[in-house]
Input
Amino acid sequence: MEFDDKVPIYYQIEEYIRQQIISGQLAAGAQVPAVRQLALDLTVNVNTIQRALSHLVQTGVLVSKRGLGNFVTTDAHVLAALRTAAIQAPLAQLYDRLAALNLTADEMRAALETYIAQREKESE
Amino acid sequence: MEFDDKVPIYYQIEEYIRQQIISGQLAAGAQVPAVRQLALDLTVNVNTIQRALSHLVQTGVLVSKRGLGNFVTTDAHVLAALRTAAIQAPLAQLYDRLAALNLTADEMRAALETYIAQREKESE
DNA sequence: TATAGTGTACTAGTAATCTATTACACGCAT
DNA sequence: ATGCGTGTAATAGATTACTAGTACACTATA
Output
């Protein structure tokens, strides 16, 4: 996995797991890969994995069962909130940054439109 | 100034200066506040300011004149690239994150629309 | 009961970031 | 020439993030 060295690895792993859950690659109630396996997969130390997971446990996103593994919560409220936050955060960032550059709402729409067209063109 | 403790302060200051330039609060050729003054304003050490500025100098965004101060470049190409990058970056982040959640282009447009409406409502 | 697979805890060492402090280099006005 | 305002450099210490390694705790199953 590629990490941005401007942000703590444990935090990027947190986001990675959250995204796996939101996108459905880790279903509600599913078991998360073992900490030692994750450490291998992400080429990172077990302690770093542990740090990321323990925060997800504190947040209620994961449930830890000693001797068994870590599991995705089945709490629908938590899962819904997770998805909402994952969508809102980048929107807020976009809005704030472009507003700081004095772009109007219309110019933001246009910028997104242009960007989408560009990306769709590239992926042909 | 409020800093995100997940990202190095020197990097956040870099972005802060870049934004001041792009938004026009620091015009082309204008003098950047003295390093000691910036350190006071941002309640940060002079070394940290220096680290941020020296990278902006390396990038060609600022020009350093020993004994005189740091000045915004007058190179139109550099300034234009700065603005472009500042707009593209959050767009790319939005697109990538929402695409990872399996949102379509139309859903992205709709999400932005909803978000803008929400923000404009709040600011009344 | 033994073993394999799981989470958890602890210590030690390295590297990066930030602070504090001091000193030096340059340009300009008095 | 002096002094003030500027950028620059260098050292030492605190804190955090990460790695490496070891050990322990719990569960299920052969």
